[in-house]
What we know:
single chain; about 120 residues; Immunoglobulin-like; five-stranded antiparallel sheet; 8 strands; about 0% helix; Uncharacterised_ApaG
Amino acid sequence: MKPIHIQVQTRFLPHNSRPANNEFAFAYHIAIENRGMEPVQLLNRFWLITDANGKTTEVSGAGVVGKQPMIGPGETYEYSSGAMLETPVGTMQGHYEMQKADGGLFQAPIQVFSLAVPNLIN
């Protein structure tokens, strides 16, 4: 069993989008659950965002939404953020760099997930 379990929920933000300008706004909500036996700290994030045209954007930096949370055993840390695409469909994937109590570092992968305008394909 992997010590870190990550769940993602996404939604399209029509009021923040301007399709005529190729601007499609999406929100994503992340839940990071520590299923391990020791506390971990989220130090850094890395995202690979790909739109339907194959354009990729890499986003990396310290923490998430300005925080580097400590997540104890059995605890879940949740946050929301967003992404802007030039197409109505795209994907995101990446990883978090985590630090164990003993100072050891490891990556918690974030599986690919879709960003899509609802009811786009009938």
